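Predict structure. Chain length: 108.
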Amino acid sequence: MNVTFTRTDELLCARLYGEIDHHTAADMRMLIDSEIENSLPRSVVLDFADVQFMDSSGLGLILGRKKLIESMGGGIYIKNTKPHIRKIISLAGLEALILSEKPKGKEE
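Prediction complete.
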């Protein structure tokens, strides 16, 4: 599995592993969407600490989950981005999603 989850009543953290490309993004999307729909969090955090590579498929992963959680009245955040991944996120205009501090609720 290339995604693991921790959650509280209000916060779902999805820790992503490995590479996010067209080969892996679809499975990650399905796992994250299923967990969002089952746990109905207020906020979702995508933790990139263990992601070594990301292409445009990763941007699609972020944007799709953003659309899903916002349709449910929640928000999405990104944390632990390596410099080369942060650059891709910034170039896509998504830098505002990168956390400088924890959202409301805390991880277990």
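Summary: The chain has a mean pLDDT of 90.
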